[in-house]
Structures are given as C-alpha cells and as structure tokens.
Fold:
Amino acid sequence: MTCRICQAPTTEILDLGSSPPANALTVTADEPQTSYPLVVEWCPSCGNVQLRDALSADVLYRDYLYTTPRSPTLDAHYDILISYLRMKEILNRGTSVVEIGSNVGHFLGRLSHEASRVLGVDPAREIADEANRSGIPTIAEFFDSVSARRILQDWGRADLIVARHCLAHNESPHEMLAAAALILAEGGHLLIENAYVVNTIENIEFDQIYHEHMFYYSVTSMSALLGQHGMRLVDAWLTPVHGGSIVFVASVDDGQTVSSRVDEFLTSEASILTASSFARFAGRSHTVRKDLRDLVVGLRRAGKRVYGYGASAKGNTLLNSSAISREHIPYTVDSTPMKQGRFLPGSRIEVIPEGSSHPAPDYYLLTAWNYEAEIIRKVRDGGNRATRFIVPIPSVRVV
Ligand code: DWN
Structure:
C-alpha cells in the first residue's frame, strides 16, 4: 500500500483480522454488524505507521459513544498541559483557543478559565449537544477547510489549536492541518496529542489498534507531516495517559526556538522504528492474545465468573483479536451512561453500570488497563476486597 503522509510504499506489520468499529456498541445483542480489516503497516521513508484500510469519518463518528470519562488521572494531565502552555507563554488571558475533537469539553472547560475565549469542534452530534449544555461552545462538525472557513468568518482566528487524540483519527491529516493553517493566528501554536507509537510497540499495546486510530505517530512521522504544511515541531514530550501518549507542539513561525527534545526523539526513534522492532511487536502481540484467551477460557471452565472493566475502544480490539466473547465474559462494567445497556461490538458482551446489582465477579479483565490504579482503588474503596484483576498489557498478569 501507500503511505498517506509521504506517498512512499509501505510494509505490513500486523494483521488483527476483521472486526466492527471499536465504538460501534449495539442496542441489541443480535444487531447485524459490519466488520472491517485491521491491518497495520509502516512507511520506512517517513516513519509513518498507519492502518491499511481507513473507514469514513461518518461511519466512525456521527453517532459516537465515547465520552471522556471524569477521571483524576485525566484531571492531573489537564493540569500539566495548562502549566506547560502557561510556562511557554502559549496560553494567557488573551488567548483564543479552538479544540478539535473536544468531545464533552472537559479539557476545554478547564482552558476556558485560562484563556479569553474557547470553541470546541466535534462531529458527534449528541456529544456536542452535551458540551453546549454544559456551557462549552461547540460546533457539531468535522474540522476541515469548510468548517474552518466558517469559524474564521463567525468567530475569528485561534492563537492556540488543540487536537488531543484526534489527528490520528482522521483519514487525511493533511485536510486537518490545512484547515488549521486557515484559522491559526500569526505566531500561533498547535498542541497535538496522540498515543505514542514507541509506547504502542514497546509495551505491546496492540489493543491501541482499532479503526479510529488510522495513524500511530512518532516525532519522525509528525515532523514529516507538519513540514508539508509549513509548520515546524518546536517541542515534544511524553505523558503516561491513555497507555503512553506524546504531546507535540508546532508553530508556523520559523523564529521559534526548537527544544532539544525534538532531536533527541529523532535520534532514539531511528533505532526503534525498525523492521525487527515491528516484527518483535507482532510476535509478542500474538503471545498476549493467546495467553489471555487461555487464561479466560480456563477460568470459565473452572466455574469462575469474569467480567470486563471499562467498555473501552482498546478493549474491543483486545477481546475480538483474542476471540473472547460473551460466552466467556457476560458483562463489562462501564461508567458511561450512553454505553450502559448496549452490547460491545463483535464480542456482544453486555455493558452494565459500575456498582450494578449484579454480584461482583471473581475476576475483572481490565479492558481499561490505562486506569488500572484508579479502577482498583474505586473497586476496593467500594468494599469489594475479593475480586481480582486481570491486567492484559504488556503481558497477562493477575493482581
Ligand atoms: O483515542 C481515543 C482515546 C483517547 O479514548 C479514542 N479513540 C477513544 C477512547 O479510547 P478508549 O475508549 O480506549 O478510552 P478510555 O478512556 O481508556 O476508555 C475507558 C473506558 O472505561 C470508558 O468507556 C470509561 C470507562 N471507565 C469506567 O468505567 N470507570 C473509565 C474509568 C476511569 C472508570 O473509573
């Protein structure tokens, strides 16, 4: 296939079979579902890692169910982001901020106390409505050159454009960056955050591979992408959220000082983003999938009850690629009202509220392992001292 960043030929890394979109939870357990291939490939020329098959944004996002959870882990991350932006003098009381993929506006709500004005852009209609009800001005549109022109006309330019966990979620990042260039004020900045491909392959986070994640960025590939749009990477740093993410800071102003971290990442990635690293990632992914299925099947055969914890997108890749279904795990607990009562795509596991009346299981499979400490603390503080936890990534273990 062809790299969507630099058009060079790509090499297949991992084929996880076909599955429905990770957030396509169904209303009934037998609702027909369409499955699509999940094949990851790598571009040796620019370092880009991408899905071979990109689904249309309408299929993925118009009736989207993921709402950012209220989480101490994420709140602490928002504090770090805001402190960084203020320290770098990118954010102050006069700053105009647009957030792409703003979801229900948790982060934008925090930024609204630090900036002069904020605007959210999110294509999921129900989620945008929820953000507006909570006072975060949000337009229910995809961020592209059409919506950008309307923002420019109706709202004005942005000194800061935030794109957390959404630039990887779009078949054409070129369209998003071209649209960003239309509304970015002179001397403005972009803050882009996504899962970091080095964490994905080194921590065997194959469950980060799902149809929404069309790109798996590195400093190498992000630099190549930004360069095609007259933008420069001026800083990059790691954060542990969502299993290990990277924050990119870009500017169109050539006079900006570039942090030494950028070159340090480029150097380290040159020895990590290699064919042998990807082959090791693929091999260890197969091992985790087999170990997880063997453990869950064995526990079921021994009469143990296993529930999922967290109806996460990554959890659906973990379950479906490990051939684990509702015959092994009858329920998954989740805090998201829109997900409760629905059924997970592919596995057809029913989603039930946290603290539901169902008796606690013998084991929770942490399909939201990125909140391991927070979830275990919540379960224990709730008086459940018996249920044990299966943590699947980077290798299957019981705690
Ligand atoms: O890139 C993306 C990341 C940032 O968020 C999106 N494509 C979609 C989404 O991925 P995810 O669904 O894997 O994200 P989370 O935030 O890891 O999902 C956690 C799930 O667990 C949510 O449905 C909420 C739920 N949860 C819960 O039930 N109790 C979460 C916490 C913290 C809890 O205490």
Observations:
- The chain has a mean pLDDT of 95.
- The first strand starts at residue 11 and ends at 19.
